[in-house]
Amino acid sequence: MKRILPLLPLAALILAFLYLGLDQYLTLEAFHDSHEAIDAWLERHPVLGITGYMAAFSLLTLFLPIAALMTLMAGALFGFWQGVLIASFTAALASTLAFWLSRFVLHDLVQRHFGERIAVVNAGVAQDGAFYLFSLRLVPIIPFFVINLVMGLTPMATRTYYWVTQAGMLAGILIYVNAGTQIAEVDDLADVLSPKLLGSLILLGVFPLLAKWGLRAVRGRLVPPG
């Protein structure tokens, strides 16, 4: 119970957010309708806008599966390069917060619900370390909230988790932020990732592990036994 107490104020904020119906604005349709008004407000309050975006991304994605939408919005709100910078650091921060939440607060709950996956992930981390997490981050078909929660129960250090997460998510962030700069042409999040593009990202995700296995095989041939 003591572990849950720090979450109560945050949970109250999220419940109030949902009760007031503010989640209706977290859709592409709502963003299309209010895009011009938001742009005008950001021109007057750029620092407050960036801070608010980072806070909303970090807190809301702890409970709602809207990371892709928030990353898309970064491109629409801040442009490509600034959007990539802001979304990259914010996504890594949000993932680390969820990682901590799993490790220090929701440990028992995550263990009960993801026991089998945790065993698989632990084996992957034990064998390939940071390469394993890097590969998971490059493949967008695996829900990131699942990765965050399960990785929180591994022995991986927070510092390693943060920088590998940021590096691994960069390819996907570039794609979504770029799509966000053309927000008027995006009607569905599924439009952002074509089958061809998804296949390319899967290959990128597998490549680090293949490279490591290849290096291990070469090293085994070059170094005599014993």
Give the integer mean of the pLDDT values. Answer: 76
The low-confidence runs, each spanning 5 or more residues with pLDDT under 50, are 218-226
SSE-based structural type: mainly alpha
The number of E-state strands comes to 0
Topology as H/E string? HHHHHHHHHHH
Summarize the amount of helix as a percent range.
over 70%
Number of helices: 11
Shape by Cα distribution: globular
Q: What is the radius of gyration? A: 19 Å
Terminal-residue CA separation:
53 Å
Question: How would a textbook summarize the main sheet?
Answer: none
Number of structurally distinct domains: 1
Strand share of the residues? under 5%
How is the topology of this model organized?
Layout: H1 8-19, H2 28-44, H3 46-60, H4 67-78, H5 80-105, H6 107-113, H7 115-128, H8 130-138, H9 144-151, H10 158-180, H11 195-222
Helix pairs in contact: 2-3, 2-4, 3-5, 4-5, 4-10, 5-6, 5-9, 5-10, 7-8, 8-10, 8-11
